[in-house]
Amino acid sequence: MLSVKPPKFISRCLRGVNFPQDWWWALIGIKALAALGLIVGAVLNNPSITATVSVGVLGYFIFAIIAHIKANFVGKEFWVNCLGMTALSVVVLVFNVAAIG
């Protein structure tokens, strides 16, 4: 739901990095696939699936960091939202990779 009508802090980020509003709908699919992959990996108790999905999620946030820097949109939204979610993605990936080994 946050991608259909994003709250102000998300729409500020999307506008701040000049992401075209006509493409905001694509984020719904990206986020839904990521969530589905994590759920499937958890239900099947397959850490390889969840680790693979976690790499994709981390990639998403790395590109978000690049977009913020390129747009020179490095205010509070960048530090809290973008880097915060990137850090959380790293933690999830570390746990998933640890579960494989």
From TrEMBL:
It is found in: Membrane. Its main location: membrane. The keyword Transmembrane applies. Keywords: Membrane, Transmembrane, Transmembrane helix. It holds the Pfam family DoxX_2. The chain crosses the membrane at residues 23-43, 49-66, 78-100. This is DoxX family protein.
